[in-house]
Design a protein that fits this description.
heterodimer, A: 533 residues, alpha+beta, Alpha-Beta Plaits, ten-stranded mixed beta sheet, 19 helices, 15 strands, elongated, B: 135 residues, OB fold (Dihydrolipoamide Acetyltransferase, E2P), 7 strands
């Protein structure tokens, strides 16, 4: 932990004179004690001025000792003590007169810092914290921790550079080194100050990994044009991006600042930076919860239900969809902004999904409610199942994002079993179809079916039918159970698709065959974990 | 909308007595329908066909040669290579395995093309008229 020493004196004097706030001054003096930044603004200002006045009084250099417990006490108790503790080193006698002078000066309006534009001033105060917490509480989210992210206007980087160059110059005159890397970053200092306050108001800890994000965007319209000179100096850093309003993004500005030469910088930008008239403005305070994932398996009992909404030219072709019937209730319970539905493969509108059903996962975006027990999930499952006889769900549970990967694995790698009702033109007897049962690992070459060719590339797919089992019905009908590789087009295997799927049932039986009904009997993926439903 | 081009019912090749000897997709010195290659969803690289673009020429044993025209404006997706090796299916299963080609019209033209075609009923009326006028 460092403290202000003699060598810091010229910096403190210089920055204070040019309109920099106490906390920024501490930053440039590489003061790493978080507790110190949390001290009230007035006190910091007072003590800096004390420090400057004390150069004749003391031979010992330490006037701003922060290692002692008293200051730690400030942080823990979070009170407005300040003055007595900080000045315990002996300037106490001078307080009365100094106090009067300082108070007089403080009564006039606080100048907006020329480096942080008020971020480490006004925006560390309880009022702002209250404002943020009000916004959070009114948004009505469930959360157990938070991450506070701040977006600062790019001009701050420019001003920071100018201040650093100023300080470097001054130190250079005195023959003293200045390490850029030891200077405390503005954002870091800001978080030191505001995290404990937010944490206290919201009642939950700050956690970098939290899914609940409170974000504030700051802007300073008064100085918006300050970055412009960088565009002329380093044009290749600023590429106009169509989706961004301004070309002067923080990243672009930082890149340019790295490239630009000192002399060029000083030519175009005032050093020290000018004092602004106004503070920054907090443009938006937003809350966002990380997505939650709900997985399960669905059965589809309707032959008239698409998996996703079927809308052409704004007109809905068929009422509802599997995804809507499931998501509707989840959206209501989780109070999310939107959802993304994905499943391990899908079936046609006119195909039923029987057996254990097809695995699916729904991403609920920005949910307000996230705490659901296994019991709650069971209840939700029941609600969904009671609401429709077209679909049923099972194994409904919360899962992690990585779950989606496992599910998609299933789509491409795992086998499926089907039951098809087949019609033939020429009569068949039991003997005619018996041989199908003995065929194992039948290789198919399937060209992209004509019925999807308008939206898929033309290609040939090799797929395998692992086993088949036939059930004779009558001279023109039989049922075929098949176990196939993922991605096999069953309908085309039955009718041949103009001969573009070979072999096919027609070619195997030497007849013309067509499919009347298709059911998915099972999707052989062992995910999500089965629950006691 | 995908279109499949096949021989019409009343086509001479499908009448009794004709035997197909060969099917030729080389319609000119520089153009063979067999060389048609499409890639991607939008079927780039496809040969573009107008209504009168020849798809193939079919020869029969009695020395006749018939040119089959596209009749549909659009991209040529594929031609049926099975009929090259097995011309018989052209006659046995002209509407399914014996198809000639698959064409994909432009999305915007889809509706107007469909409207320009004859329905089954209208076609039968045309055939009837033909029969009556020739007798």
């Amino acid at each position: 932990m460092s403290s202000l020493t003699e060598k810091d004196r010229p910096i403190v004097q210089l920055l204070l004179n040019t309109g920099t706030c106490p906390r920024c001054i501490l930053r440039f003096c590489c003061v790493g004690s978080q507790a110190l930044y949390r001290c009230p603004y007035k006190d910091l200002m007072k003590d800096l001025k004390e420090f400057l006045k004390n150069n004749q009084e003391k031979e010992d250099t330490v006037c701003f000792d922060v290692v002692d417990p008293p200051c730690k006490r400030i942080r823990l108790e979070h009170t407005e003590e300040g003055p007595d503790e900080l000045n315990h080193n002996g300037a106490l006698q001078q307080i009365p007169s100094v106090n009067n002078e300082n108070t007089a000066m403080e009564n006039s309006a606080v100048k907006v810092c020329n480096v942080c534009l008020g971020i480490l001033q006004e925006f560390c105060e309880a009022d702002f914290v209250k404002k943020v917490c009000q916004k959070v509480n009114s948004a009505d989210y469930q959360f157990t921790s938070f991450v506070f992210s701040v977006s600062l206007p790019p001009q701050l980087s420019v001003r920071e550079r100018a201040a650093w160059l100023l300080v470097k110059q001054e130190m250079g005159k005195l023959g003293l080194p200045l390490a850029k890397d030891d200077i405390v970053q503005l954002k870091e200092a800001y978080k030191w100050i505001i995290h404990p306050q937010l944490s206290e108001e919201l009642g939950v800890p700050a956690d970098g990994k939290s899914l609940f994000e409170v974000s504030v965007v700051f802007a300073h319209p008064e100085t918006e044009e300050e970055c412009r000179f960088l565009a002329t100096a380093c044009p290749d850093c600023f590429k106009p991006a169509k989706n961004k309003q301004s070309v002067f993004t923080r990243m672009a500005v930082i890149k340019a600042l790295e490239k630009i030469k000192e002399e060029d910088f000083l030519k175009h930008f005032p050093c020290p930076p000018s004092s602004p008239k106004n503070l920054c403005v907090a443009l938006e305070i937003q809350c966002n919860n990380g997505a939650v994932f709900v997985a399960g398996r669905y059965n589809k009992y309707s032959r008239n239900l698409p998996q996703t909404p079927w809308i052409i030219d704004g007109e809905r072709k068929l009422e509802s969809s599997v995804e809507e019937l499931i998501s509707e209730h989840l959206m209501a319970e989780f109070k999310a902004d939107s959802f993304n539905f994905s499943s391990s493969g899908r079936e046609d509108v006119d195909v039923r999904t029987l057996g254990n059903g097809r695995p699916f996962a729904i991403e609920l975006v920005n949910p307000r409610r996230i705490h659901f027990t296994a019991e709650d999930m069971k209840g939700l499952q029941q609600t969904i199942n009671n609401s429709s006889d077209k679909i049923q769900v099972r194994d409904l549970q919360l899962v992690t994002r990585s779950a989606i990967g496992r599910m998609k694995e299933g789509e491409e790698e795992k086998t499926k079993t089907y039951s098809a009702l087949i019609w033939t033109d020429k009569a068949i007897q039991r003997e005619d179809i018996a041989f199908l049962d003995d065929i194992k690992e039948l290789k198919l070459d399937q060209k992209t079916p004509l019925r999807v060719l308008h939206r898929r590339p033309l290609a040939v797919r090799c797929r395998i039918i692992h086993t088949m089992r036939s059930e004779y019905i009558d001279e023109h009908h039989f049922r075929l159970h098949l176990k196939t590789q993922a991605g096999t087009y069953i309908k085309e295997f039955v009718h041949g698709d103009f001969g573009r799927t070979k072999p096919n049932i027609g070619s195997l039986l030497n007849r013309t065959a067509d499919i009347l009904e298709l059911d998915v009997e099972s999707v052989d993926v062992d995910w999500p974990p089965a629950l006691d439903n | 909308r995908i279109c499949v081009i096949t021989l019409a019912e009343a086509h001479p090749l499908l009448q009794n007595g004709k035997t197909i000897t060969s099917v030729n997709y080389q319609i000119s010195a520089s153009c063979s329908r067999l060389q048609n290659k499409v890639s991607g969803k939008s079927k780039r690289g496809a040969q573009f066909l107008t209504e009168l673009a020849p798809l193939c020429r079919i020869s029969s044993s009695d020395g006749e040669e018939y040119t089959i025209y596209s009749c549909i404006r659009g991209r040529l997706i594929e031609v049926n290579e099975n009929i090259l090796n097995n011309p018989a299916i052209l006659q046995e299963k002209p509407s399914t395995e014996g198809y000639i080609a698959v064409v994909l019209p432009k999305f915007e033209e889809s509706k107007s093309i469909t409207q320009g075609l004859l329905t089954r009923k209208e076609y039968e009326e045309v055939l009837l008229k033909r029969l009556n006028s020739s007798s």
